[in-house]
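Practice problem: predict the structure.
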Amino acid sequence: MMIQGRQWTIGILTCGLLLGAGSLHGQDIERIRLGINYTAGVRPGVIVMAGAGLDSVRRVIERDLGFSDRFEIAFLPDTLGRLVGPLLPASLRPLGVVWAVELRRSPGGVELKLHDVASGQIRQQGVRPLDAAAVGEGRLAIHRVSDEIVGWISGATGIAATRILFKSDEAGTRKDNGIWRIDSDGENPVRITRTGGLVISPAWHPDGIRIAFTEIRDYVGALIIQSLATGTRVTVPTTLSGTNNGASFSPDGSKIVFGRVAEEGSDLYEADVSRMCCAHRLTTNGRYAVNLTPSYSPDGRRIAFMSTRAGTPQIYAMDADGTDQSVLVPFDGGETGASYAPDWSPDGTTIAFGRDAAGGRQLFTWQVGTGQPPRQQTSSGRQNEDPSWAPDSRHLVFRSNRTGRDQLWIIDLESGASRQLPTPGGARLPSWSPILRATNP
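Answer:
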């Protein structure tokens, strides 16, 4: 049974219906509300049940599966979601759920099973070493389990085991700012950079272990690469003059491309990160145009960027060696023509960017090579910009002032649903990580 995308409430299920069902242990369910706000398509219903001591793990997985925007989740209070006997899938059929996730303690950590409710069969199972407290770094292992469940059910890429970098203006000021990271579900904020100076433009290395950002001191914006595991910092060669920002790593992590604003103009440069050398200029019209915010295509062959060479800021693209520079995203030359900060989706099909519209700036996406016009994705608030893709090429994180101050929001491009990420102070310039493996810090 599939649940249509609408608010759906299951009425009173009597004790008699569930008597003997260890999953609910004969307790009355007066009302179980599925938090359904999806308006397009059909998504399978999922319920997560856990043994004693695993309530925190269950809540993290429930939320992760909900944030994937691929399922309807039956959110139960702990008294009903706690297993006190065998899970009997047949007892869950009146709830309309298609899948049941079972969590129990085991000698190796936590045993998880995926039940097909209709057939009563176990489709997937395994034991994973998880911290039942579900706090701090221990949450990342639980997020990986959530992504595994997403793959089991839908075959899709999960995004729970990811983090987002952002620049924070703490307490809403610009006096003490830093680069922070936060889990994809909005928990576990951690400051990455040291105090002092001005930092901007964070970016993830593809290995998920290093990041790049610009640190401005004495009117120079140096490009820094920092290890998250050790805190070791190195400065990219030739970036100790001008302001070097908006960095993007090549998909294999060997190169970094960035914008440089200096006396000679504003152009894009590329450096060899693997050897920490060989920075060279890719664009050559900086005295007459601004060229900034580059983004590699996922195959590393092309680079999208913003340029004002035609007068109005537009989205251009070039080969990775700087040749074949041309307009990438079509524009109409009117108010909606000015476009900024492109980001190439991980699957290579879509460019996300900010564009001036209706007296403000909104997020747009454009399907590469289709010839179709860009599609506006946001309308709430006057400033929605700086998009960054999730690894699933379906979700975007971006800066918005719709609450009255700069904050981070995530939008699901399939349903249009959005949610806010709680951050310390104002937040902008987000960067979504790749999937973080067990070896990542």
